[in-house]
Amino acid sequence: MTETAILVLEDGTVFEGESVGAPGLSVGEVVFNTAITGYQEVLTDPSYARQLVTLTYPHIGNTGCTDLDDEAGKVWASGLIVRNVPRRPSNWRSRIALPEWLRARGIVAISEIDTRKLTRLLRDRGAQNGALMAGEIDVDRALEAARKFPGLKGMDLAKVVTTDAAYPWTEGQLDLDRNAFVSATPKFRVVAYDFGVKRNILRMLAERGCDVTVVPAQTPVADVLAMRPDGVFLSNGPGDPAPCDYAIAAIRECIDRKIPTFGICLGHQLLGLAAGAQTLKMKFGHHGANHPVIDIDSGRVMITSQNHGFAVDETTLPANVRVTHRSLFDGSNQGIALTDAPAFSFQGHPEASPGPHDVSPLFDRFVAMMENPA
Ligand SMILES: NC(=O)CC[C@H](N)C(=O)O
């Protein structure tokens, strides 16, 4: 028997559909993602904390779920909104169907709604706060909850999703033939600030010979320096980068000491802030796996994976920060490098997962920087 579910936006728009997850009420910012695969990686990406994700691809759940595809230890997205979930998944790696996976994790999800209409609405009016409700339905209560959600602007979520304690990471890439992860021999000591890190980033570092120690977001920089790192990595993460003053101060110290530093997504925005630039909230952000980005130095265009709602404001960049990448969708900043320190960062997701691998050479650039910090 199917249960009813509703999605209510703060502007009063109501979508009615079927529950494909747990019963309950969940609120957040509603964002659309245009990737056609990778729903499990999206749902477990900590950068989606306090967001209700709608996927524009109409059939979601086709390949089921496996623990090996989790990007973190739990589902971080606040809920899932899709057009249709196929009755039965089909893939040799699948262990469990998406609706059961969602229910087991207490995640509210809705299907059978017009996701094209919802996406157009978000594109025209900008990202909106919303509430998903399944089981006992009460439209007024859902609308009130959506309107009460304060929005992501000004919200520091990095310290909410980060690890409680430091831990080492050695696992490399997934060997699909063996359906298991392989490791490489470590050459560099890397401290990774966890603002909401995705496992595939850590794997790509480990695979390139990095002996990674993941540390909590608020770890004092003195503790990091005491580990004598060859490089510092700044992870992706949810929320607004601007209020993360502890991270911005720590990064400033790393740059001043000329420690090779590499940031991804939230880490990119935080490097920008540490360098003296400002960030802004975008209208509906970038969430997808087909975003063209130009590498300014080479003129090459790469197809990239993206997931962000904030951006570095290029007009505020100080003289010692160079623009390295730009979005070909809207011209927004996608990468920076410092001219007086070995530090660079990228707005999109070079680790893909899900998405194309065009930007993975940025990990090699970080390794080269540690080999030759100059
Ligand atoms: N994936 C990320 O790291 C996202 C960064 C930031 N929370 C944003 O939305 O822009």
Task: Name some characteristics of this structure.
374 residues, alpha/beta, Glucose Oxidase, domain 1, Rossmann fold, 2 domains, 10-stranded mixed beta sheet, 10 helices, 32% strand, globular, binds glutamine
Task: Explain how this protein is built.
- The chain is of the alpha/beta class and 374 residues long.
- It folds into 2 domains: 4-148, 3-Layer(bba) Sandwich (Glucose Oxidase, domain 1), CATH 3.50.30; 158-371, 3-Layer(aba) Sandwich (Rossmann fold), CATH 3.40.50.
- The protein has helices at residues 39-43, 98-104, 115-125, 139-148, 158-161, 199-207, 221-226, 245-256, 266-275, 361-371; strands spanning 4-9, 14-19, 24-33, 51-55, 79-81, 108-111, 128-134, 167-169, 174-175, 180-181, 188-194, 210-216, 231-234, 261-264, 278-295, 301-313, 321-327, 333-338, 343-346.
- The strands form 3 sheets. It has a 10-stranded mixed sheet, with helices on both faces.
- Helix 8 (245-256) crosses helix 9.
- It is globular, with a radius of gyration of 20 Å.
- The model has no long low-confidence stretch (mean pLDDT 96).
- The site of glutamine (GLN) has 11 residues, from strand 16.
Q: How would you sum up the global shape? A: globular
Task: Determine and state the CATH class of the largest domain.
Answer: Alpha Beta
The H/E string reads EEEHEEHEHEHHEEEEHEHEHEHEEEEEH
Total tally of structural domains: 2
Output mean pLDDT. Answer: 96
Task: Walk across the major sheet and give the strand order.
Answer: 8-12-11-13-14-19-18-17-15-16
Overall CATH architecture of the largest domain: 3-Layer(aba) Sandwich
